[in-house]
Amino acid sequence: MAALRSLLPPLEGGVEDLLLPLYQGLTLIALRLAAEKLLVPRLRRALKSRAPAAAAGAGAGAGGRGSDRRAERVVDNAFLVLFIAPLSAWGWWVMLRHNGPCTPSSTRGCLEGWPGHPVTPEFRLWWLSLGGLYAGEMIGTLLGGVGFKLGLDMLIHHVLTVWLMLYAYFGGLHRYGTLATAIFDTSNTFLHAAKALHETGLPSLGLAADALFKLFAAVFFAVRVAMPPFCMLAPGLDYGRVLPPVTYAVTNGLMLSVYVMQLNWFYKIVRIARGGAVEHGAGPKTKAAAAAPPSGAAGALPPPAAAAAGGVKSE
């Protein structure tokens, strides 16, 4: 136990704080199941009436289950947008207004002065609420796909992300963690909005879905590929020398692991973008379509990108 404990920095928060994201995660699963029960049948009927040929094609050979899955995916992605968008905006507000001298343009204050950084109530509530989203997706997946079902790559991503979040929360690394999380999560909303439009199967929404996917790809490149080396990796390696050696190694090792995943996902996004459009049912298949997870359910955040990432999802 002593060896395991040495992998953690000194605790500054209370373990009981984790009850909040646990309760939020369970509530999220309940809301997701309620949304599926109330909205999926209505949406399936609406999509069949608006695009009968596409719906029939989607359900061919599967007893109509294809159209059911399409409606489920629309609800799934729209549900995630409903929660991810405000969490992302909230994160930027906390980062710019309540994160001390730690912003993308001024990273020295993210780690200098550690471990004396004050924990603001604004940070605490946002951070734990964000953890609730990850908790809901992971618990639902581990229960066999109750409400949420992450692919293996997204489950690994979530484990790494939650470990980083706990490390930051209990180790006084909240300034650095707030900066990284707010930046990474920026692209998520655009991805799930594009996927929600695509999954309707309506040709009239194809161009909008492609436009949103291209916007997602551009934002993903900016916040997950271009910015991290300057805003996260370099500051962690340089200013992070104030940390104890083990904390320094674990923090930077986890951050580098997460960044490598972003590069892998961006490679897949580029392959999707270069592939162009192909025929799909009664209308064009959008690039957002290619980003749809093979399991039929997206991961969630941030980050990060689970659709092009073996589904591209940014959670």
From TrEMBL:
Q: Which residues form the TLC domain?
A: 1-278
The UniProt entry, under InterPro entries, shows: Lag1/Lac1-like, TLC-dom
> TM segments?
74-95, 125-143, 150-170, 246-267
What membrane topology is annotated for this entry? Multi-pass membrane protein
Q: Which UniProt keywords apply?
A: Membrane, Transmembrane, Transmembrane helix
Molecular function GO terms recorded: sphingosine N-acyltransferase activity
The reply to whether Transmembrane helix figures as a keyword in the UniProt entry is yes
Subcellular location per UniProt equals:
Membrane
A single GO BP term for this record reads:
ceramide biosynthetic process
Q: Which organism is it from?
A: Raphidocelis subcapitata
Under PROSITE patterns, the record lists: TLC (PS50922)
At the highest ranks, the source species' classification is: Eukaryota, Viridiplantae, Chlorophyta, core chlorophytes, Chlorophyceae
Q: Which portions of the sequence form the region Disordered? A: 284-315
Q: Give the protein name, as stated in the record.
A: Ceramide synthase
Q: Which GO terms describe its cellular component?
A: endoplasmic reticulum membrane
